[in-house]
Write a structure and sequence with these properties.
This protein has 329 residues and is mostly helical. Helices cover 71% and strands 0% of the residues. The protein has 15 helices and no strands. The protein starts with a helix and ends in a 20-residue tail after the last helix. The relative contact order is 0.12. The C terminus is likely disordered.
Length: 329
């Protein structure tokens, strides 16, 4: 009776007192309330700021959302390019969501080790193949950097430097194919090289598509000579951001804009793009972390990789049919 009285004073319902409501997880309702609050905040900002914001900013924001969504989709699709039929399209995209949630919320988590163990656990793929994916992606990153530098020099009118970086990219691609071919998987060398080539070129292609959409989105605010370095530098910084959510890191290129006399539009564009990269991960992350038996607290744990490694799926995945228990007669 005393306990019930305490519950009533605290506003706890009778159902909750009996454990009915306490047995339900709060993730769904908390997510719904968070989204409702975000929509309310967006409405307030819209009503307060709409008179003073030029219409071009709204069009640019919509186009930047397309660039952010395309980048998220293509980065997920790259896993399907590498693994082929070993991964479904849905797995490829959902794994990218989990990887990005881990990157944004826990930058000190060893990303490569986490992704390798996570992919092995969820697919039953051979360890050598999962590690090959990480090696191929690491080798392909330099190709993307060199091609980005070539594009930037070309836009700035530095033809010789652009040609030098492009030549360096070709040389690196050849070297990376040779280095990758020395792996230990059972696949034929030619097949492995083709897989690495497809992954490396698709990695550079992601930056190309997302970058072109970015330039298109901000064309009413900035010239392409100003917008391209903003995109390339901010995207590169996000990859290595040591601060959760990349706060204060993705916007650093705006300082270059300030030195060049276009700091205000540069900062506005980068903040919008930063938010739009994070926004889709809120609902998708809630869905896929729960699907894969993870939560945000897990991503903060130093023990996570060990725990995932200890719960690996058997090669080829879990059996679809559990053995039936013998029946007595």
């Amino acid at each position: 009776a005393q306990t019930a009285a305490i519950y009533r004073k605290a506003g706890v319902s009778g159902r909750a007192q009996r454990g009915v409501e306490y047995s339900r997880p709060l993730n769904g309702s908390n997510l719904a309330l968070t989204l409702l609050g975000a929509l309310l905040l967006a409405f307030i900002v819209w009503m307060v700021l709409i008179p003073s914001i030029p219409a071009v900013w709204y069009g640019s924001a919509l186009k930047l959302s397309l660039a952010a969504l395309a980048g998220l989709f293509l980065r997920g699709l790259r896993r399907r390019v590498f693994f082929g039929r070993r991964l479904t399209l849905h797995q490829s995209l959902s794994f990218e969501v989990v990887a990005q949630i881990a990157q944004w919320t826990s930058p000190r988590l060893p990303r490569r080790a986490f992704e390798a163990e996570f992919i092995i656990r969820e697919t039953g793929i051979e360890r050598e193949l999962a590690q090959d994916w990480l090696r191929s992606r690491a080798l392909g990153l330099m190709l993307t950097v060199l091609l980005a530098a070539a594009a930037l020099c070309w836009v700035m009118g530095l033809g010789f430097a652009a040609a030098s970086f492009a030549l360096g990219a070709a040389a690196w691609l050849l070297y990376s194919c040779i280095a990758y071919a020395r792996g230990k998987t059972a696949d034929a060398t030619g097949r492995r090289v083709v897989r690495h080539l497809a992954s490396s070129l698709s990695g550079a292609g992601i930056w190309l598509v997302e970058g072109v959409l970015f330039l298109w989105a901000v064309s009413g605010l900035l010239g392409y000579q100003q917008a391209l370095p903003l995109y390339l530098l901010s995207t590169a910084l996000v990859e290595v951001a040591p601060i959760p959510f990349g706060l204060g890191v993705a916007e650093l290129p705006a300082l270059i804009g300030a030195a060049g006399g276009y700091g205000a539009p540069a900062l506005g564009v980068l903040i919008i793009f930063h938010i739009l990269r994070l926004l889709p991960l809120l609902p998708l992350g809630a869905v896929y972390l729960a699907r894969y038996k993870l939560d945000l607290n897990d991503l903060q744990s130093r023990d996570l990789i060990r725990r995932i490694a200890e719960t690996q799926r058997p090669t080829g995945g879990w059996s679809e049919h559990l053995p039936t228990a013998p029946t007595g007669h």
